[in-house]
Every structure is written in structure tokens, then in C-alpha cells.
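User: Working on a comparison across species. This one is High molecular weight rubredoxin from Methylomusa anaerophila. Can you predict its structure so I can line it up against the others?
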Amino acid sequence: MSKWRCNVCGYVYEGEKPPAECPICGVGPEEFSSVGETTVATARPIPAKRWKCTVCDYVHVGETPPDVCPLCGAGSDAFVLLSDDAQSLTAEAIAAAGLGTARSALNKVSYGLYIITSVNAGQLNGQCCNTAFQLTDQPTRLAVCLNKENLTHEYIMASAVFAISMLSTNQLDMVRHFGYQSGRNVNKFKDIEYIAGKNGCPILKNGVAYVEGTILPEKSVDVGTHTLFIGDVTAGRMIVDEDPLTYHLYRENRAK
Ligand SMILES: Cc1cc2nc3c(=O)[nH]c(=O)nc-3n(C[C@H](O)[C@H](O)[C@H](O)COP(=O)(O)O)c2cc1C
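Assistant: Here's the predicted structure for High molecular weight rubredoxin from Methylomusa anaerophila:
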């Protein structure tokens, strides 16, 4: 059996001829060079179990399902085990598991990580989100994309006000608290230290900064499962001049 190495990403394939497409980086057979007959690992040693998110079909490879689906935010209980038989995956299985696809590439998009909160008829709620970003400076306008199933979405639709707390790097517990459970099942603010913003939305006391805002319903967009809310900032300040938590940092440390 011959061995072929991808000139672009280094992936090694075993077969009589190079594969039609590199399962890691997608280049064609012309980018593969023969590396002889010696024994070379044909696939990176990756865990064998594959877990499928029943909400969005994302496939995670690992010994256990992820704490949260990186695509749709569903919890680990939304994952079902697809297979547990292989010790190391073939090129075809790697491609099937999504490692060589656009979905895995999207894991490399950088995001911040925030707690967005709202208030509705005196009730407080909030959720974790990575999809908040500034749109314009004048006016100070931003966007955030929220799942329509979320209680926070319901509150923001009803009251059109929100606050966004930027987390500090030691607040992974807040990600779990606000991101892994719904306010439909638990009062998330019961034991949380917060202050009320000018618009009534709760702001985390130990974050690094916050903004408050008002939604512009006519500019917000229905994007299917989610609403892309557009809002103008009405207040805000830096609480402490420290680095904020990022989505990347969370992914690196979430198991700890
Ligand atoms: C790291 C992380 C990022 C998340 N980002 C988003 C997001 O941008 N939009 C969204 O709708 N849900 C996101 N979620 C999922 C929600 O935080 C989660 O579904 C939450 O339980 C909803 O709470 P609620 O029903 O009380 O509003 C994220 C979760 C985590 C852990």
C-alpha cells in the first residue's frame, strides 16, 4: 500500500492513489506527494466516539459530548452517540465527522463572550451569548443574535431593552450559569450579584464593562431559528480595565 502526503496540510493518506480530495483541507489529488511504503499513521489519533447534536446535526468527536453545542448552543444532553467502534478513524470517517468541512472551519471564527440580560414585567433574565458585536459608532449601534426559543429572546421582544455585561477571564462559572440552563426552569438571578441599569436590566457586578441599550424593531432581522436584534446603546461604562473573556478562552478552559 502506498502513502501520500498532502503538500498543503501534511495529512497522510494510505491507498493505491491519492484521494480525490484531502479530507482536512480540501485540495485535490495533484497536491499529494508519494511518501513511499513505510508505515506512517494514516490519520491523526483522534478519539473514536462521534456525538450528534439532535438540534442542529453538528457532529462532535470526543470521548464525551461537548458541554454545549458550538453551533446552536444546545446542552450536552441534546447529543446522541453515533458510533463507538473505531479506535482511529479512516479518511472517509474523518470527512463524515465534519473535521474537513466548513463547519469545523467556523470554529476558528473569533468571538467575544457576554451575558445579555433583559427585564419583562419586573422579571429578570439573561443568557450567555457570543454573537454581540458593534455595528456603527455614530450612532453607537450593535447587534446580537438570539435563539427564538430562549427566555431572554422573549423578554427582549416584549420590553425592547437589554444590557450586555462583558465578562472577566475568571468568570467561566457565569458562562455555565447563564448559558447551560434556561430561565424557564430556574431563576438565574437568585444568587447573582447585580445592579439594575438605567433601563431596568440587570448588570453583573463582577464583569469588566457593560452597555445598556434599546432595540430597534424595524431594523432587527428574522434569520430563521434566531432573531438578529439591532439596538442602540443608551448607557454603559468600563468597570475595571482588564482583558475580557473571549469565546476562544472559554473553549480552551471550559472543562476545567
Ligand atoms: C459559550 C456560549 C455561547 C452562546 N451563545 C449564544 C448566542 O450567541 N445566541 C444564543 O441564542 N444562544 C447562545 N448560547 C446559548 C444560550 O446561552 C442558552 O441556550 C441559554 O440557556 C438560554 O437561556 P434563556 O432561555 O434563559 O434565555 C450560548 C451558550 C454558550 C455556553
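For your comparison, note: Residues 151-159 form the longest helix (9 residues).

User: Helpful, thanks.
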